[in-house]
Amino acid sequence: MAVAAASVFDALHLNNNNFLKPDGSGELPPIDYEDLLSLFAEGAVQFPAPSQPVSQAKRTDVKSVRDASKRVRDTTKNKTEQLKELEALAAEKGAELERLAAENANMKFKQRLLERVVQMQDHQLKLMRGTGEELPQPWCDAQARSAAATTCAADSSRCGMPYHAGGLTAAAAVRVMTPGCLLASPDVTLPPLDRERFRSLGKSKLLEGWKHFLSEVSAPLLSLETNPEDEEAAGRLRQLAAEATFMFKHASLLAPDTVMLATETNLETEELAHPDPSLWRIVVRSLELSPQQVADLRAVWGLFRGIMGGLMAERRRVNEKLAAGLHGPAADVAVAMAQLTVSPECEVLQTLQRNLRREKSAHLLLRGFLFGQTLSALQFVKMAVYSWPWFPDATALVATVAEGVDEATSA
């Protein structure tokens, strides 16, 4: 025990520690080192334990790392969500921009279409009244007669079709020139306009002229379909198309009732009837219309339907008033005759007459737009030939085009 005490004494250097001696005082009583060692041995004296166990420290470090990782993940997640929100916002703005651009393009398209329709109707009214130039049509540039490969597209209101075939072959010209522009072509000779002859044109005369045109144009059409580069056939087809357009245009403007009656007449039997709607689908497929032609016809069909919707609503009101007047008592009729005043029925009939004139004008709009501004000369001839045994009905043809587009869209 003494050896252990000495070793502890030496190890702790307790014999030289002056701090055990109070300042200015004598020596302290001797320390009992054996008692001190016994205290150590018995565990009475406890050394300060570490602040936390090693395992707990490791857990704390792992938790800190996890917390840091979680914060990084949360930050990344927040940034990802923000990025997704920004992408969604950008996509929404892009879609809105595309919608506005499409709407703007559609409005411009409708504006150009309305300008063409207004210009065409103005030309038709002048021709019907005999106050304007009959040839050429305003959308075919008359100053381009001597220019090669000149188009009618001098401005946005023109039809955009080549006017003169100086830079085109005859086969190419019939595929791009409208029948309306054919009337002003310098190499096409047409008879002078006899307004009274057209005004008094009967159905039989119109059908006779149309049948003659079909008999003459079938051969060059077949030759051109067999050989698309047949210049002789193309030139003959162009001449015949101009003559038929001249007849059809002025008959439509000056004798619209005759043309409407001809569209309901079978050319073989010359009896009144209605063709099967499937015929017009076959004719439309044979025309091979371009997307621009389809868009134009669909737009003008929407305009026509709007006009006809208002006319039919007015027609129903007129019919209701007429029906109410028919059921009046005999005394009212006697009083009305005694007063010698215009009866309400007469006023309604005037409204009905205006309504019918507007309906004719709406059908004339479709006819002029389809035959004068949309179809090429070759398409006009195909339409005439493939419509046999019926006279071509512009309203039915345009309706078929619009119906086909609607069916394709819904499908």
UniProtKB/TrEMBL annotation:
Protein name (record): BZIP domain-containing protein
Coiled-coil annotated residue ranges, if any: 72-103
Keywords: Coiled coil
